[in-house]
Write a structure and sequence with these properties.
770 residues, mainly beta, 47-stranded mixed sheet, two-stranded antiparallel sheet, 12 helices, rod-shaped, disordered C terminus
C-alpha cells in the first residue's frame, strides 16, 4: 500500500514537473533535468526520450526508471505517452486536459517477506470527495495497455488490461494471472458520485458481481453493496485454480444474492488490523439454485439470511440473525419426495474468526427447525416426520458439530398397516471432516409402554450401523393394543403375561447390509382360545442380510401347556434358515426332545422339514403313558384303569397336514380295567344281551394284552382298532376274554371338547352299545 501511494504521488509530481519545465525551460534542459530529479528521488536505471514540444502537447517516447532497496525492486516504464495541456487551467487549477499512454508497465519484485505491518494515519474524507475523483490532476487519463507484475519468493501475479480515468468515472478492464496461469478477469467502474461496480469473470462466465454506493456521514463512511455470486462457477474456480475441493451437489444453476451495509471509519490510524477493527458490517444473503445430483434433485432452492459483523482486535465477530432459512422446493431423493422443505434458525448464531493467528473459526450454540410439507415415500402409505428440531452446541471448525435432534411425532404407515406414533430424541455428532455422523436416540410411544434405546453411525460413503435395545416390555394387558398395530395376530391369541426384551444391530455399506437380532420372552403366559401355556421361556437369535439369507435359532421351554392334554417339555431347540427369495431353501430343524404327557414320555427325533412345503416322515416313541390318565380324560363315571402304554407312531408331514398310518400302541405289563356303568347304561344293557355281557366282563377285567392300531388323517379323523385279552375272575369263572373294538373319532374335535372340562361326551357309552 505504501509503495503504490508513493508511486502515484511521484507520477503526479513528474507530470507537473514535465509540463512546467517544457513550457518555461528549453526542451534540451528538460531532457537532462528530469532524469536528474528522478535520480535525486532515489531512482536508478533512468531512460528518458521525448519528441519536440508542441504548443498544446508533449510526446514522451519512453520513460523508464527503477528503485531497489533491501526488501524489493521497483521498475516503471511508460511507452508512447501523449500529454495534452492548456496553460491557463494548468496555472490556475493545476489540472491538465488529458494523458494518453500506449503502454504502462509496473514491476515489483519483493526479495524477502516483510513482517512489519503497514501503519496508517489518514482521513478518508481528505482522500475521497464526491466533487472530483481523488488523485487526478487530469481531466482524462487513458492507458491502452497496463501491465502490473508483482512477485515474492512464494507468489507471482501479473495483471494486464486497460485503464480509463476522468473526474466523472474510473473504468478498468483487467486480466489476472497467477504463476503464469490465467486466474480471473475483472471489470471495475467508479463514478463521480462514488457508485461502484465490479464484475469478475472466469472462462467467459460471470463469477461475482458487485454494485454499490459510498457516502460520507459525519465521522464515518457508509458503503452499501449488492452482491451476486454464481456459486456453480465459483466452485469450479476454487477447484481449478486453488485445488480446493468442495463436496457439494452439482448445480444446474446457483446464485448467492445478498446485500452488505458497511460502516467505515473516516480516520485510519495504526495497523491494518487495528483500522479494520472499527468496521461494522450488516449483511443479508439469499441463494437461488437448481440442485441436481445422481440421487438428489430440487427444482429451486433458496437461502435467506441476515447477519451483522464487526472486527475487534483481529477478531471478526459475526452474528447470524434468527429467522435465517434454507428452502428446498420439489425435493426428490430416490423414492423420497417432498413439495417443500425448509431449515430455519430459531436463535441468533454467533460466529468468530481469528484473522491474526489463523486459529479455527468458532461458533456459538444455536437452535434450528426443519419443517415443511410432510414427505412422501413410495414404499409407505403415509409418512409424517416433521418437524425435526435441532440444538447445536458451541464449537469450532476442528471439533466437528455436536448437538441434539428430536422428532416429537413420527408416524410410519406401511401398506395396509398402522404403526404407533413415535417420538425420537437424542444427541449426535458430526466429525470434523463432516463426512460421518454418530449419535444416540431414545424412541418412545404413547400407545405402548416401551422405550427403544438406539445408537448409530453413518458416513457419506453410505456405510454405517444402527443398534437398538428394548430393555423390558411387560406384556400383561397389551394384547388389544398389539392387535391394533399387528392385525395378522390371531383373534384367539392372548399374551396374558410375560416380559419381552430385544436388541438388534443393523450394519450396512453402499451395496450390502446385515441384521442381527436377539429376542427373549420370560415367564410368559399365552392363551389361544381354550389352549393355554404358562411359564413360557423363549430365546431367539435372528440374522438376515441383503442377499436374503436368514437364520433364526433358539430355544422354547414350556413349563406347562394344555391343548386338551396337559403337556410339559424338556425344551425345544430349533433352527430355521433359508433365503427369502427362494422358498425351496427354507429348512426348519428341530433337535431331538422329550415331552411329558399323561404320566409318560414322548420322544421326538431330530427332524428337518421345509415348513412352506413340508414332506417328511419320522418315528415318535411313546413310553409309560398311564392308562388311568387316559381314562380320566373322558371323565366317565365308574370308569377306572391301571397299566402303562408304550408304542411308536410313524408321523408323516405333507402340505396337506399330519397323518399317521398303522401306528402301534400297547401294554407292556398286565393291567386292569374296571367299569361300573351308570343307571342309564345299565337299563340299556337289560335289553341288549351283548352289551350286558361286555359290561359284566369289564367290571374287573384283568388284561394281559392291550393293543391299539392308530390311523390318522390331516382332517383330524382317526381310526382306532383296539384289542383286549384277559379275564375277569368274577365273571363266568375267569373265562378268557378276547375283545376287539373299532373306534372312529375326530381328534381335533375331541381335543376341543377336552379343553372344556364341563363338556364330557358319552362316547364310551355309545361304543359299548355298538
Amino acid at each position: 500500500m505504501k509503495t503504490l501511494m508513493y508511486l502515484c504521488l511521484c507520477l503526479l509530481l513528474l507530470i507537473l514537473a514535465l509540463v512546467t519545465s517544457s513550457l518555461f525551460f528549453l526542451p534540451q534542459i528538460t531532457r537532462y533535468a528530469l532524469p536528474l530529479w528522478l535520480e535525486k528521488q532515489g531512482f536508478e536505471k533512468i531512460h528518458f526520450e521525448m519528441s519536440p514540444v508542441a504548443m498544446d502537447r508533449i510526446h514522451l517516447n519512453q520513460l523508464c526508471f527503477s528503485q531497489t532497496d533491501v526488501t524489493q525492486t521497483l521498475h516503471i516504464c511508460l511507452d508512447n505517452s501523449l500529454l495534452s495541456f492548456n496553460l491557463k487551467p494548468l496555472l490556475q487549477q493545476q489540472s491538465l486536459p488529458s494523458l494518453h499512454i500506449e503502454h504502462a508497465s509496473i514491476q515489483i519484485e519483493q526479495h524477502v517477506l516483510s513482517e512489519q505491518e503497514t501503519q496508517f494515519d489518514l482521513w478518508l474524507s481528505e482522500f475521497i470527495n464526491t466533487e472530483r475523483l481523488p488523485l487526478l490532476p487530469l481531466e482524462h487519463l487513458e492507458i491502452e495497455k497496463l501491465t502490473f507484475e508483482w512477485q515474492n519468493p512464494n507468489q507471482h501475479y501479473e495483471i494486464e488490461g486497460r485503464l480509463s480515468l476522468n473526474d466523472e468515472r474510473w473504468y478498468s478492464n483487467l486480466h489476472v494471472r497467477q504463476q503464469g496461469q490465467s486466474l480471473i478477469d475483472a471489470e471495475i467502474k467508479v463514478t463521480q458520485s462514488l457508485e461502484t461496480y465490479l464484475l469478475l469473470n472466469y472462462e467467459d462466465r460471470p463469477l461475482y458481481e458487485m454494485s454499490g454506493h459510498l457516502a460520507h456521514q459525519e465521522d464515518h463512511w457508509l458503503l452499501n453493496l449488492g452482491h451476486i455470486l454464481h456459486a456453480d462457477v465459483a466452485i469450479n474456480w476454487l477447484q481449478t485454480q486453488h485445488e480446493i475441493t468442495i463436496d457439494l451437489p452439482e448445480f444446474k444453476q446457483a446464485q448467492l444474492i445478498g446485500s452488505t451495509h458497511i460502516l467505515l471509519p473516516d480516520y485510519w490510524q495504526g495497523s491494518l488490523i487495528e483500522s479494520l477493527s472499527q468496521i461494522q458490517i450488516d449483511a443479508s444473503l439469499g441463494v437461488h439454485l437448481d440442485l441436481s445430483t445422481p440421487h438428489l434433485q430440487s427444482q429451486t432452492a433458496q437461502l435467506m439470511l441476515n447477519a451483522t459483523a464487526r472486527l475487534e482486535s483481529g477478531q471478526l465477530k459475526a452474528q447470524l440473525i434468527e429467522g435465517a432459512s434454507i428452502h428446498l422446493n420439489e425435493l426428490t431423493f430416490g423414492d423420497f419426495y417432498t413439495p417443500s422443505l425448509y431449515l430455519q434458525l430459531l436463535s441468533n448464531l454467533e460466529l468468530e474468526f481469528d484473522l491474526l493467528h489463523g486459529e479455527p473459526w468458532r461458533y456459538g450454540p444455536s437452535r434450528w427447525i426443519m419443517n415443511g410439507q410432510q414427505p412422501q415415500l413410495k414404499a409407505l402409505d403415509d409418512l409424517q416426520a416433521l418437524p425435526l428440531l435441532l440444538s447445536l452446541e458451541a464449537g469450532n471448525a476442528n471439533t466437528g458439530v455436536k448437538g441434539r435432534a428430536s422428532i416429537p411425532s413420527l408416524r410410519i404407515s406401511p401398506p395396509g398397516r398402522t404403526l404407533p406414533i413415535l417420538s425420537i430424541e437424542g444427541p449426535f455428532q458430526l466429525n470434523k471432516t463432516r463426512d460421518s455422523i454418530t449419535g444416540r436416540a431414545s424412541v418412545k410411544t404413547q400407545d405402548l409402554p416401551l422405550q427403544l434405546d438406539a445408537n448409530y453411525q453413518y458416513n457419506t460413503q453410505g456405510a454405517g450401523f444402527l443398534n437398538w435395545t428394548l430393555a423390558r416390555y411387560a406384556l400383561q394387558g397389551q394384547t388389544p393394543v398389539l392387535k391394533r398395530f399387528l392385525p395378522e395376530l390371531p383373534a384367539k391369541l392372548d399374551l396374558a403375561q410375560g416380559n419381552l426384551t430385544h436388541n438388534a444391530s443393523l450394519r450396512f455399506s453402499a451395496n450390502r447390509w446385515s441384521l442381527q437380532a436377539n429376542t427373549e420372552l420370560t415367564s410368559g403366559v399365552v392363551n389361544y382360545g381354550e389352549i393355554y401355556a404358562q411359564n413360557v421361556d423363549w430365546k431367539s437369535q435372528f440374522s438376515l442380510d441383503s442377499t436374503g439369507q436368514f437364520q433364526d435359532q433358539g430355544n422354547l421351554l414350556l413349563e406347562y401347556a394344555n391343548i386338551g392334554l396337559p403337556i410339559t417339555s424338556s425344551g425345544i431347540h430349533y433352527q430355521y434358515r433359508g433365503n427369502t427369495s427362494n422358498t425351496n431353501t427354507h429348512q426348519l430343524r428341530l433337535e431331538s426332545q422329550k415331552l411329558f404327557l399323561l404320566g409318560g414320555e414322548i420322544y421326538l427325533p431330530a427332524i428337518q422339514v421345509n415348513p412352506l412345503n413340508p414332506n417328511s416322515i419320522f418315528l415318535v416313541s411313546i413310553r409309560d403313558i398311564q392308562l388311568s390318565s387316559i381314562l380320566e380324560l373322558y371323565a366317565q363315571q365308574g370308569l377306572y384303569g391301571e397299566g402303562t402304554i408304550d408304542g411308536q407312531l410313524p408321523i408323516q408331514i405333507t402340505p396337506l397336514g399330519i397323518s399317521i398310518t398303522r401306528g402301534n400302541l400297547g401294554s407292556v405289563i398286565p393291567g386292569v380295567i374296571r367299569y361300573t356303568p351308570s343307571h342309564g347304561v345299565g337299563a340299556a344293557a337289560s335289553s341288549n344281551i351283548g352289551l350286558r355281557l361286555a359290561l359284566d366282563a369289564l367290571t374287573d377285567l384283568r388284561y394281559t394284552l392291550l393293543d391299539l392300531e392308530v390311523n390318522y388323517q390331516p382332517s383330524g379323523d382317526a381310526h382306532l382298532i383296539a384289542r383286549l385279552q384277559g379275564n375277569n375272575p368274577n365273571w363266568q369263572q375267569g373265562r378268557p376274554i378276547d375283545l376287539t373294538l373299532s373306534v372312529e373319532e375326530n381328534i381335533l374335535d375331541l381335543l376341543t371338547a377336552l379343553q372344556i372340562s364341563n363338556r364330557i361326551t358319552d362316547s364310551l357309552d355309545r361304543r359299548f352299545r355298538r
